Amino acid sequence: MKSQTFGVDLEDRAQLMVAFPRIMIMAGEVTAKAGDALIFEPFGLNVVKFSLLVTLTRSGEGISMSRLKDLSRMMRSPSNFTQMVDDLEAKKLVKRVASREDRRVSLVEITAKGNELVSQVMVKYSQIMDEYLRDFPTNELRDAVYVLIKWIWMTGDAAGIAHLKKTEEPFQE
Predict the structure, then answer these.
(1) High-pLDDT (> 90) share of the chain, %
(2) CA distance 61 to 108
(3) Torsion 130-136-139-141 (CA) sign
(4) Is 99 left (phi over 0), alpha (psi -120 to 50) or beta?
(5) d(CA 148, CA 78)
(6) What is the pLDDT of residues 15-45, one digit of tens each?
(7) What are the chain's domains?
(8) DSSP state of 173
(9) CA distances from 156 to 29, 63, 67, 151 (A)
(10) Residues 122-154: b if buried by 16+ CB within 10 A, e if exposed
(11) H or E segment and range at residue 109
């Protein structure tokens, strides 16, 4: 069966192997641009900065910059990552505090204003995702998530991106 949109024979493994990474790249670009335009820009954010805020919200405590980078799964240069945190700090969404254990280490904490913004964005995020995923059955979403996680782990491991390596299987086969 040949896909009308991408011209890929869905029964030809060789064509699928060439198409898969290309479609992943396209999906990433569409996701980032659509997410920014539909969800994050009205709140003065982008998908990357929102991801940092969510990571801090989930941690419940201050996190060092290197740990925050690992937990948020950001593949950004250290200077670019620092600039993003600086921007969030300028908007008073996060703050830096000295670690109690090692005062040479700065921890990043989410502020009350940052937590409130995350809550507001999550409402909009849920509405948009519900709208765009409404027609996908749960089993299709589950299969897509499984394939994407597996792909990220395998390619991240092969590329030596340590923070993408799996620590435990999320699914049992």
Answers:
(1) 35
(2) 8
(3) negative
(4) beta
(5) 26
(6) 888 888 888 888 888 888 888 898 999 999 9
(7) 14-158 (1.10.10.10)
(8) -
(9) 18, 23, 18, 8
(10) eeebeeeeeeeeeeeeeeeeeeeeeeeeeebbe
(11) strand 106-110
